[in-house]
Amino acid sequence: MSKRLSIYPAENEKRPLYSQLPSTDDSDDEKISVPPKLSYFGSALVSDKEDDPLGILSRKKSRTSSLATETYANNHTAGHTYVSTHSGEPSQSTLFAQYKNNQQPSMTTMNSTQMEEKHSNDFDSSFRKIKSMQQSMREELTSRHAERRSRRFLSSARIGVLGPAKRASSYNEGSSAASVLSDDSNREELPEARTPLSRIEFGDLNPVQYLKKHNLPSSDLPRISRLYFEKQKNENWQSSRLKHIFPKENVSTGSSKHSPLFSKKENSPATLQPRRKLSDTSLVSGSKNTFYKALSSPVVPSQKNVFLDKTNSFSSRNSEYANTNHSNTFIQSHKKREALANIDINRNNDQSYLQEAKRFKSLKSCDPQDATEKTYKRQASLATTHQVESPPPVPPQNEEFYHREPPKPPVVKRVEIVEPKTRMDSGKGLQAKRNITVVNDEEYEKIELLGRGGSSKVYKVKDNFNKIYALKRVVFDEFDDSSVSGFKGEIELLNKLKDQARVVKLLDYEMEPGVLNLIMECGDHDLSQILNQRAGMPLDIEFVRYHAREMLRCVKVVHDAGIVHSDLKPANFVFVKGILKIIDFGIANAVPDHTVNIYRETQIGTPNYMAPEALVAMNYTQDDGRYQQQNRWKVGKPSDVWSCGCIIYQMIYGRPPYGGFQGQNRLLAIMNPEVKVIFSEKTANDDTVPRSVLDTMKACLLRNPQKRWTVDEILESPFLKPVMVTPFFIRDLIKNAVRYGADQKEVSKDKVEELADDVLNRLADIRL
Ligand SMILES: Nc1ncnc2c1ncn2[C@@H]1O[C@H](COP(=O)(O)OP(=O)(O)OP(=O)(O)O)[C@@H](O)[C@H]1O
């Protein structure tokens, strides 16, 4: 049965036999369920293997022939009877349209009878023609194949325009690359040939994935890859430029999550990428912002985040592009290298971040929970120290092991140690008490030790009103009646002389069994300290005169009170606010045993200031005339004058009269009348000793106590009370004397004395 096979729809037949094929321009042969019979024939002609019916029946071959026919028709529209496929229906038989054009009956217009006749007559020629046609078809099929692939790519691109690409409309540079390509008539050109590179959307796809998604031929892979890497380069450049423009600001603001071209830039890792584990190298990499933002809750993405994200994304693409030939370990190490490289680039060898990276490595090997705490604390500290522009650190929550709550701080047991009240405590109290001396219910706190004597210590103390006093604390044998009476005698003397300015004031006292506390006015320095301070210095006669006068004035007060001190020495004179005062008198006299005095002197050396009569035991006769040998020491006021003479002697020569003797020899020399005191006119420093001074010392150091000057005589001596004259007085005196002598033939000795007294009297009236 012949059947008219034509691509032209019959009048009564709107659609050809193959109308059951999908009527879309984008028909896919794979969807053809029942291929047309003619396609079998065409496929057989195209098939290289004539003996292979499978190749003839191959739908792929059929599909190829269809495309080739369509392409041929399109390319030969002009001058040809148009065997159109523009009806929207795919053409299966237009391969032979050229024969129609050559007035040859088209095979498609022949019926079966004609074909049989033709075949029998012109079999050979037809076979050759078919062979040639087959060859030309091969060539055409190759080009058609490429075109069809490209067309599929374009179709996918159009679909992309309707899909994700349309969401890229926010991009202000125009429509997507796919939309541009859809209007591209030159199907042989790749998209990048006419489209800006930035308009190609790869998304998260690598070139291979991109080809697969859009069904592009593998031959496009090099150009797609080139496009992909150029796009990467462009993005890197934009990222670095934005980093310089906004060094600390976030690069991405207000962008769409799905923006195809800016998605890698504008979407932070926190939003686009799954949260990384702590072991993810992105946490180690880059800046501290990245590091800590990755640790914290969703944060504002920063440029560095973008850069790192891109880097990581690039690494992931690379790993996929390498067809996952590398192991995950290698990929991770690659990410680490990239991230650490970013540290150097972005932070200029910021050691703190390198350390942070190292520390993070160490954290990985530590307990994760500890690492979390440490990281969070570190994050908080750095946020304050480095003034990171990131929001306040948020405790990590979504990390792999961050779900664990941070451990509670260890409970610190407060152990309150209560020291028992021991002897130490009471000792402290005792020590405090020891520093406090109560005299008649008045507390005195010890400040320092001023000096010590044979049986006493003298402290500088203060009362509750911070007033300063001298506390003399004497410890004695309470069962020694003579000692008790002796101390009482001293107290009586002090009370007697309490109104005397030259005697140290006794303010209060209290006698307890074996202890006597005396509160006195406190002196600043004693005379012993002053003499020691001037030892070795040149003689200053005025210094000696002043201190000698002060000393004797003190002694005068005591003597005028009928009291013999009997123990005068430089240490017993103290300056109280510039006034020399006498202390510690009377006690020695209150003690009958003078050995105490000797003993005391032995403690300080030798009895340098004691008078000979006070050292030599004197035999006395009783009132009945019987001689009684008994040690008695006659100690009176002349003894105090001897002592004062010794002190003046020391101030002139630097040491007491018998100071050249050592030990007991000194004592013997003092008691021995044959041992004379030497009064040199020169000091050790070859200073001349004034005559008045010599005379005063000699008058004080007479062995016979009765011949010694009294204190009053000493105070009136030329040494302590000198006559001061002026040069005018001397000139007048000489002139008058010569004139008087010229008038007198002879001036008697008495007359000279008379004249001298007259001059002295006038000098006293002059009051220089
Ligand atoms: N009121 C005072 N102000 C300042 N210092 C003082 C006072 N009383 C005593 N001292 C100092 O204490 C030292 C000893 O004092 P004091 O001579 O009264 O003790 P003592 O036991 O009588 O000694 P001694 O019996 O050997 O003379 C003195 O040399 C003096 O330096």
TrEMBL record:
One of its GO terms (cellular component) is kinetochore. InterPro entries: Kinase-like_dom_sf (IPR011009), Mps1_cat (IPR027084), Prot_kinase_dom (IPR000719), Protein_kinase_ATP_BS (IPR017441), Ser/Thr_kinase_AS (IPR008271). One of its GO terms (molecular function) is protein serine/threonine/tyrosine kinase activity. Residues 444-720 form the Protein kinase domain. Residues 105-114, 169-183 have a biased composition (Polar residues). PROSITE patterns: PROTEIN_KINASE_ATP, PROTEIN_KINASE_DOM, PROTEIN_KINASE_ST. Residues 1-33, 105-124, 164-195, 250-283, 365-407 are annotated as: Disordered. GO terms for biological process: meiotic spindle assembly checkpoint signaling; mitotic spindle assembly checkpoint signaling; nuclear chromosome segregation; protein localization to kinetochore. ATP binds at residue 472. Residues 115-124 have a biased composition (Basic and acidic residues). Keywords: ATP-binding, Kinase, Nucleotide-binding, Serine/threonine-protein kinase, Transferase. This is BN860_09604g1_1.
